[in-house]
């Protein structure tokens, strides 16, 4: 008896179609190690050289630079930092040699019209403190190097030598902990590049707030305080903030944002999935797992949980007031359950991308950057925005401030991979 081969043919057709789609939307970029940084003590947690991925600009963008910082949480004590040294988040020895660029890092005008031909750099994140630490002493028992601030300066120095010293435009951006890096380092970046360069910053999912969790405790405040103390970050944080409050509080954008002089644009979901999972409802505040399903999928939240999340949204919007109202500060705050929306093509710029006030994130950021029009928009509360790409997480995942970023992005891509395969197969069946 002959087997029905049609389902297999459909699957292979869908798989091939999706591979082609992903190839079109992204491209691989090789790794560069900053070996000269080692002599300066500008190293990852394990003492290895910093690294980045660099795609050279071309045409009209040859003298424009986009420096994007990778995310990956933080480590707040020796034990947590030691857990990182055998991973890409603590050692360049563990980093992949090729990294896919898409979204804001795309080199195709249809996917990234305002920045496609720029010099694009993705800086790998390996210090665990948003590149703020600098402790000279190294304990031989652990061999941990807390040198994030030195790493940042060394990478920028290397890029300047490779042509950024001639930059007409330069942007510092980042996602998650990298988004926080872009906020904390925005003025520092401005000071490191030539004074003739037009500099602005973008922060994607980096506006972490000092909110209380569902048990009424601010665990994130204690956590950030430990990060700052462990890495010796206090001396790097803005004096205009640390002179008024303890340094750990100046790790929160809401407290140090008023000190930022360089133009900056904030891209954030009002229901940032990382913040909901780790600030509002961390496991320590939810010992019975009441929030487990809700955190995995917002459509699984009860009415009471949604009400609590609406309260968190208002708290986030109140914290956003720290930015001020100057048109040099822009923001795109959509009502989605998401985290990091500039690195993936589907949320940066595509036919089905999130829309706010009639604009995609790419359009809003581009218009603001080139002074075509200001943009300070806040979305309506969930679930009114039907353009959202709300995230659904792996049930086995148990993220924390120390581990987030190692698995969830991979799962997001797998989820999108499967969804696109099913879409292609469905269309093939419908048209057959």
Description:
- With about 425 residues, this protein is of the alpha/beta class.
- About 35% of the residues lie in helices and about 15% in strands.
- The protein has 14 helices and 10 strands.
- A 10-stranded mixed β-sheet has the order 4-1-2-5-3-6-7-8-9-10, sandwiched between helices.
- The longest helix has 24 residues, at about 410-430.
- The chain is globular and about 55 Å long.
- The model is unreliable at about 15-20 and about 405-430 (pLDDT under 50).
From the structure above, extract its key features.
single chain, 432 residues, alpha/beta, 10-stranded mixed beta sheet, 14 helices, globular
Elements, N to C (H/E): HEEEHEEHEHHEHHHEHHHEHHEH
Extract low-pLDDT stretches.
13-22, 404-432
- How is the main sheet built? 10 strands, mixed
The number of distinct helices, counting runs of at least 4 residues, comes to 14
Spatial separation of the terminal alpha carbons: 24 Å
The proportion of residues forming helix, as a percent range, comes to 25-40%
- Which overall shape is indicated by the principal axes computed on the Cα atoms? globular
How do the strands line up in the largest sheet? 4-1-2-5-3-6-7-8-9-10
Overall pLDDT score: 90
Number of beta-strand segments: 10
